[in-house]
Amino acid sequence: FFSSVLPPPEDPVLSVYFASRDDPSPVKLNLSGGSYRTEEGKPLVLEVVRKAEQQLANDMSRNKEYLPLDGLADFNNLSAKLILGADSPALEEDRVVTIQCLSGTGSLRVGAEFLAKHHQERVIFVSNPTWGNHPLIFNLAGLSVEVYRYYDPKTRGLDFKGMLEDLSAAPSGAIVVLQACAHNPTGVDPTLDQWEQIRKLVRSKSLLPFFDNAYQGFASGSLDIDAKAVRMFVADGGECFIAQSFSKNMGLYGERIGALTIVCTSKDVARNVHSQVLLVVRPMYLSPPIHGASIVTTILKNSDMYKDWTIELKGMVSRIVSMRQQLYEALQARGTPGDWSNIIKQIGMFSFTGLNEKQIRFIAKEYHIYMTYDGRISMAGLSSKTVLIQLADAIHAAIT
Ligand code: PLP
User: Fold this and answer.
1) What domains lie within the chain, and their CATH numbers?
2) Strands 257-263, 175-179: parallel, antiparallel or unpaired by DSSP?
3) What cellular component GO annotations does this protein have (predicted)?
4) How far apart are CA 299 and CA 202, in angstroms?
């Protein structure tokens, strides 16, 4: 039956993963992934997550029944409040639909399937560059993916003029994917003034904003500050899609826990949208998993646990900021040619180094350090003990 199945086209992200996996070197280092690592290079389970899990394990009244199609109700309410703000007028006016999904990816996919079925304009714009899975998710749902300019390699910053020009030229009704904060892969976010201009343009051109909120808390260390761009759009009363993930900010990667929020213009519209989203979910996976949702709900419900979470989140962010500073200083100390200030200016989990493919291949071959071929490194995968020196030496050798 399957003899005509062709091998898949080469995937640049997977090929880095395989190259790193097959490298026997004891000092190899894979900086291509998007998961937080401790100073010892180990995955981190937050203390507050362990505590919540303990509490759940001790609660004998819990069972393993199916959740409803839209997931755990408390989880949905608390997740919506986390991104929109507890005092959001949209929530008070009861025109927000939130459903538990399989993390950020599942939320994007359910949102995309809904849009392909119910939105008149099928064109969806993503930033250039963007997270590699965005085009795959949206294409598969039947949307037509286009890009808007975002990153300027010359300044290693935002191409704001290009972004506004491209969004101005988008057809009315087009969907625009905006990363809420800590842009992947560039680490470059618009300022709040720039967000305001983007918002005005999006609304005046009747575009539909679809926020990807995978890193709330990871840009500034504050959940509220990182929600500002989204809240700005919701405050104007217009429609808005938000895909939310707890993979990074609670370290719940493998639990696959996130939410899709759709802000509608009225309670009546929201009621219909809700029932139609359930029809997307039902044939796809029927009902989402219970464990991750229970962990998040336990933490968001309890003010002490919530506070502990914000402290641990800040701890992860400050370790990343310190890695940025240390890498920058190590390159300065070596006199590595070029301006490396982008490493400390960029935010979030990643740094877009500006290294080219030849340099990246050299670093992999000679120093056993792996990064994606666009030059993105996960700052969260570095440690000050050995790795910083190893990476700074490698970059210096590749440049000179
Ligand atoms: N969106 C962006 C920009 C990401 O970088 C990621 C993960 O790396 C995701 C969404 C989805 O992550 P998850 O499905 O684990 O929530």
Assistant:
1) 12-44+318-399 (3.90.1150.10), 66-301 (3.40.640.10)
2) unpaired
3) mitochondrion
4) 35
Contact 196, 232 (CB under 8 A): yes
> Is the bond preceding residue 129 a cis peptide, omega within 30 degrees?
yes
> How many angstroms is it from 130 CA to the middle of ligand 1?
11
Distance 208 CA to ligand 1 centre (A): 20
pLDDT along the chain (400 residues), means of 10: 91 85 92 91 96 97 96 98 97 98 98 97 97 96 98 94 98 98 96 98 98 97 98 97 98 98 98 98 97 98 98 97 94 94 93 93 95 92 84 94
Quote the ligand 1 centre to 233 CA distance (angstroms). Answer: 21
Handedness of CA 26, 31, 34, 36 (dihedral sign): positive
Pocket test for ligand 1, best of 133, 179, 216, 244 (most atoms within 8 A of CB): 133
Q: CA angle 282-263-240, nearest 5°? A: 100
**Given 166, 212, 226, 393, the catalytic residue:** 212
- Closest ligand 1 atom to residue 246 Cα is 16
Is 195 among the residues known to form the active site? no
- Tell me if residue 340 is catalytic: no
Burial label for 300, CB within 10 Å (0-12, 13-18, 19+), is buried
The torsion angles phi and psi of 142, rounded to 5 degrees, stand at 100, 10
